[in-house]
Recover the amino acids of this structure.
């Protein structure tokens, strides 16, 4: 709640609408209860939400337990329609620090671009002592609830807002979050327009749908790999491999596109990278190292964690810049059940899209959701439910003890299963765990049989996600919900530990 | 006549005057005297049939074709008794044709007036002002500049070096297109001061004179005077482009006019003897020009030795090795004033160099040629304007970014106040009212317009797609993903990069690949031409066709794999991912192909879609078109595909499985 100072005023306009006058450098923070929505209109002034600027006069809709903040550099007046569960204004934000980080990264981009263009260093650039300047490749580390994703988002949004045509790569290596795909996946996507905030289901923007969208951040084509679990500790070896796969492909993409290489990348990480609870330490360091190697990280940002900062300084300080950045006081402690609900929202959003109902009292029908002007038409999706026979879809589980009979195992495999081994899943077996399971449909394997190898499915990216909505074991059939048309016959999918029920 | 830019020279803007395109009125003139009688017998006996015939020929003048203009000009010369009809035909032709056809007709008017002169110049004089100005209003900028070039040649276009159509029409036109009294005040007082002179006008006259001089220099490469003139003029051009005061502009203009008059004479007069090789041409030129060009009626009897040999048709083709042809060619590019000024061989009283030194003295120009007031005004004339501000802004941005002393250290980033507002807001004044995206100061209006167009199109598309369902796309394959940026950047350009969604880039990529695949072919083994062969994948027959270049029968869109011939597209589709966006687009294109495998019958048990949001109303809002699961039913699965708007319909991919 308002903390008693006089830098903000709250004015009730009517029952549903309140007006907040925000001074320069303050932010309005709000949290929503499940099922409620809030509309915010920038009446005048300039404001941004996690780096994405609001257009004056437009109404923005938020929902699905969204927790966000409207920050203003120069002061503004906003109107809030609807009732957030919590709302207050704070003048203590780390935005100046984040903005300074952005400027420093921007300098790296400019220098790298100059090298690409082959222009000489300018005389007024004293700091430019590096003979071979590199674009910023940033790893954002931090403990739980430190606002890592928000930092990554702000930095990406600032980069695309400069008007310099940067298209930084945003990577999500937190399988618990899902990013553009669904929880359980890690993914990378180039960003060319500011990522909007409207629901926690689309924290990092939306994957492309067939609907015409206005912002490219609502039509991203990510490259995703399926890890299948929320916790990195469950299979760190697999995680390691997938991170390196992502890195290889980012590097290849940049080989073709030097200009966008200059924009650099920003990697959001799971909090488990920062946890320092004994036993997992080894895995944790291995995974950080995997990120550093795979993405050729040259800047590590540690969000509000002294010990981790020191640790990183010791390990990487001689090779790259390690900077501790302050944590925002606005970060909300998220409990496990909230995260669980968000995963559900994400899957629902993946399949059906999401339409927010405007809060009562919103007089206008012209509102933006996630930056889209006509959310009804563009954010509403229709998935496809179809029945396939068990034999049509080859299902694997990676490195887990299953109930599969020995005969169903790959030849030569024993019951002692390595972490990385793909194991066939037989849907006909009771307890296959397929009911309501989220499946990751893989890209087809290499067409050239000679190029194939045993663990190839570990290196295949995901083209989409499916959910088993019904199992008909007597008839050896199952009902599959898929996001769009396309035959599943002959395809391969991997089962993880995520389940989803509509 | 002069202004016959070759057809391929249409791209020349006002600034760059192509050597063959400009200021060679005598190109036509000498041959005009030697026109052989038209090859065909004379049959235009009565005015009516002449008019019909001339109009018909005129109708062929749709492009800037030298032979046609030449031919029409010759006819006009032979039938001076029908001059009225010729003039009427040309005028109505110019007024009738679309704007892109007007310029060639004007060249014809120009050619006839200059080369035949009498009586045509007089006939055109009463109507040329209206005709010129009306046309000038209708045509585009590049045509306008060509018309201005032509107008400048009219100043000295008559055989005696005076205004081709007389002082009054010339002034009337110039005043209209360059405004005010800025133009030649009168032929008698070419130094008349003028109240306002536009830099554009000075520039175009400057270019004209410069071109003259350069051509003179080409002819006499050792002519020091011409060299000097060219150098001075080039400096002057820079000066004018950078912007000078009114007084100086008119001063320059006056000097230019003097020079334009005197240049051709002064050049030959002051030249050292040309090198021997050039001698014949020079002599020939002198010979041909020695007597003042007689009026047109006599001109047909005028025997210029150099021009008798080539027939009109060969005179205009590129001369071969014969020196005599070369001579005629060279002299034909002599500036228009040449013939006019030779008779009045008096030395010019003024010299452009004087002007330049006067300007230097006045402090307008530094002796190195850098205008002191450069950049202050009149930048508008620079043709590269649309590109520069963007690059400039980007450069300034980069400079400004680097100026900030900020290091990536915890201390540095937390202690300073950030200057980010400058970069996020102040430098980006233009903002899209709909989505809040800002555009840099220097960004051309086009970027913003493109962005707004994108909004409009997307809204329109979304509106059209009402009641049709959309669905989440499959993610792209690794190959498409790693090459996506490449297409995005190199294919479409970054200027409007924002509006190009990755899917559009993927579509472009898909289309390209499709075209590549379709271009593949397999040579039909000899003897197999008649053998029907079908693609193992789609079972459709492969079409054979004859390749003209290789003189072989080939199967188009075919690849050979393991001794089997496949459709290249089918094979690629079968081997590549069956579900990438790219493939789906490809399928859409080739959707007419029938599939051999019947799509599996799919059934769904009736199961209500349950909304996963606990507190949310479960009934779809009235405006939400589809909020139910799309069922795959027993009916034709393709039927649904039509309903997907711009979405690439996903076909059955079972084909190759």
């Amino acid at each position: 709640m308002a903390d008693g100072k006089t830098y903000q005023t709250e004015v009730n306009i009517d029952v549903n609408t309140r007006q907040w006058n925000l001074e320069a450098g303050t932010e309005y923070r709000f949290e929503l209860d499940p099922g409620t929505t809030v509309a915010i209109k920038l009446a005048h002034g300039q404001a941004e939400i996690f780096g994405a600027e609001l257009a004056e006069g437009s109404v923005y809709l938020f929902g699905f337990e969204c927790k966000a903040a409207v920050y203003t550099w120069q002061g503004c007046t906003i109107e809030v329609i609807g009732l957030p569960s919590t709302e207050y204004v704070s003048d203590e934000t780390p935005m100046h620090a984040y903005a300074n980080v952005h400027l420093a990264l921007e300098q790296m981009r400019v220098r790298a671009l100059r090298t690409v263009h082959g222009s000489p260093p300018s005389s007024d650039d004293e700091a430019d002592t590096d003979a071979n300047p590199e674009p910023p490749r940033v790893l954002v580390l931090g403990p739980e609830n430190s606002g890592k994703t928000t930092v990554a988002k702000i930095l990406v949004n600032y980069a695309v807002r400069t008007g310099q045509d940067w298209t930084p790569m945003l990577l999500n290596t937190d399988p618990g979050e899902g990013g553009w795909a669904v929880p359980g996946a890690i993914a990378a996507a180039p960003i060319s327009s500011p990522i909007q905030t409207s629901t926690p289901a689309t924290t990092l923007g939306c994957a492309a749908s067939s609907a015409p969208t206005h912002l490219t951040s609502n039509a991203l084509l990510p490259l995703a790999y399926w890890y299948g679990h929320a916790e990195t500790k469950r299979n760190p070896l697999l995680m390691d491999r997938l991170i390196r796969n992502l890195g290889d492909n980012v590097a290849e993409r940049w080989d073709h596109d030097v200009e966008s290489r200059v924009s650099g990348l920003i990697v959001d990480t799971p909090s488990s990278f920062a946890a320092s609870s004994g036993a997992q330490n080894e895995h944790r360091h291995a995974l950080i190292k995997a990120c550093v190697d795979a993405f050729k990280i040259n800047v590590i940002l540690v969000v509000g964690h002294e010990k981790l900062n020191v640790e990183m300084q010791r390990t990487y300080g001689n090779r790259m810049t390690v900077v501790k950045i302050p944590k925002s006081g606005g970060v909300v402690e998220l409990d496990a059940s909230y995260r669980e609900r968000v995963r559900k929202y994400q899957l629902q959003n993946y399949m059906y899209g999401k339409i927010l109902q405007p809060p009562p009292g919103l007089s206008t029908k012209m509102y933006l959701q996630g930056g889209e002007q006509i959310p009804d038409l563009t954010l509403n999706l229709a998935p496809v439910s179809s029945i396939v026979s068990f034999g049509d879809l080859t299902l694997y589980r990676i490195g887990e003890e299953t109930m599969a009979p020995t005969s169903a195992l790959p030849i030569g495999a024993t019951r002692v299963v390595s972490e990385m081994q793909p194991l066939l899943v037989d849907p006909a077996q009771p307890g296959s765990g397929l009911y309501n399971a989220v499946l990751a449909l893989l890209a087809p394997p290499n067409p050239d049989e000679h190029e194939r190898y045993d663990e190839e499915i570990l290196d295949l990216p995901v083209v989409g996600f499916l959910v088993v909505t019904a199992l008909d074991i007597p008839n050896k059939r199952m009902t599959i919900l898929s996001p769009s048309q396309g035959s599943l016959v002959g395809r391969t999918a991997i089962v993880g530990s995520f389940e989803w029920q509509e | 006549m002069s202004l016959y830019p070759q057809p391929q020279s249409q791209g020349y803007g006002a600034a760059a005057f192509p050597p063959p395109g400009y200021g060679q009125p005598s190109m036509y003139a000498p041959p005009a005297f030697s026109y052989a009688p038209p090859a065909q017998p004379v049959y235009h006996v009565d005015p009516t049939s002449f008019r019909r015939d001339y109009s018909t020929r005129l109708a062929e003048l749709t492009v800037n074709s030298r032979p046609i203009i030449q031919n029409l000009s010759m006819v006009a010369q032979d039938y001076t008794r029908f001059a009225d009809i010729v003039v009427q035909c040309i005028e109505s032709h110019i007024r009738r044709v679309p704007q892109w056809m007007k310029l060639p007709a004007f060249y014809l008017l120009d050619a006839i007036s200059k080369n035949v002169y009498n009586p045509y110049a007089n006939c055109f004089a009463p109507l040329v002002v209206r005709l010129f100005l009306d046309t000038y209003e209708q045509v585009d900028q590049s045509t306008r500049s060509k018309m201005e070039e032509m107008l400048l040649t009219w100043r000295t276009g008559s055989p005696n070096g005076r205004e081709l159509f007389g002082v009054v029409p010339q002034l009337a036109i110039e005043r209209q297109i360059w405004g005010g009294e800025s133009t030649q005040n009168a032929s008698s007082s070419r130094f008349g001061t003028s109240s306002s002179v536009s830099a554009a006008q000075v520039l175009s006259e400057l270019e004209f004179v410069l071109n003259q001089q350069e051509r003179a220099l080409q002819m006499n490469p050792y002519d020091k005077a011409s060299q000097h003139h060219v150098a001075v003029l080039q400096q002057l051009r820079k000066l004018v482009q950078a912007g000078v005061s009114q007084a100086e502009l008119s001063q320059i203009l006056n000097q230019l006019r003097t020079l334009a008059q005197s240049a051709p004479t002064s050049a030959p007069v002051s030249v050292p003897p040309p090198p021997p090789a050039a001698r014949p041409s020079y002599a020939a030129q002198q010979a041909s020009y020695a007597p003042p060009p007689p009026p047109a009626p006599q001109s047909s009897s005028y025997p210029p030795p150099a021009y008798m040999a080539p027939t009109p048709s060969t005179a205009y083709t590129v001369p071969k090795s014969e020196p005599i042809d070369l001579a005629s060619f060279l002299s034909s590019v002599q500036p228009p004033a040449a013939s006019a000024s030779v008779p009045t061989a008096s030395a010019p009283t003024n010299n452009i160099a004087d002007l330049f030194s006067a300007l230097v003295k006045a402090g307008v120009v530094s002796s190195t040629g850098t205008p002191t007031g450069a950049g202050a005004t009149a930048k508008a004339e620079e043709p590269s304007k649309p590109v520069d501000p963007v690059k400039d802004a980007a450069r300034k941005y980069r400079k400004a970014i680097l100026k900030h002393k900020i290091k990536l250290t915890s201390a540095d980033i937390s202690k300073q106040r950030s200057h980010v507002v400058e970069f996020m807001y102040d430098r980006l004044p233009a903002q899209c009212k709909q989505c809040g995206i800002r555009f840099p100061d220097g960004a051309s209006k086009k970027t913003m317009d493109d962005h707004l167009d994108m909004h409009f199109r997307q809204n329109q598309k979304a509106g059209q797609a009402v009641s049709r369902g959309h669905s989440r796309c499959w993610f792209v394959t690794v190959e498409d993903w790693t090459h996506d940026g490449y297409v995005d950047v190199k294919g479409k350009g970054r200027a409007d990069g924002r509006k190009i969604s990755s899917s559009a880039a993927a579509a472009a990529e898909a289309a390209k690949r499709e075209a590549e695949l379709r271009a593949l072919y397999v040579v039909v083994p000899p003897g197999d031409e008649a053998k029907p062969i079908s693609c193992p994948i789609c079972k459709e027959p492969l079409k054979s066709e004859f390749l003209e270049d290789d003189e072989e029968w080939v199967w188009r869109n075919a690849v050979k794999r393991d001794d089997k011939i496949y459709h290249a597209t089918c094979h690629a589709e079968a081997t590549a991912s069956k579900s990438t966006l790219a493939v789906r687009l490809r399928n859409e294109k080739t959707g007419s192909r029938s599939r051999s495998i019947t799509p599996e019958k799919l059934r769904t048990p009736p199961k209500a879609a349950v909304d996963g949001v606990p507190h949310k109303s479960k009934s779809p809002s009235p405006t939400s078109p589809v909020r139910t699961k799309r069922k795959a039913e027993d009916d034709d699965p393709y039927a649904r595909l039509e309903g997907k708007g711009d979405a690439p319909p996903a076909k059955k991919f079972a084909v190759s499985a």
User: Anything to note?
Assistant: Chain B touches chain A through 127 residues (CB under 8 Å).
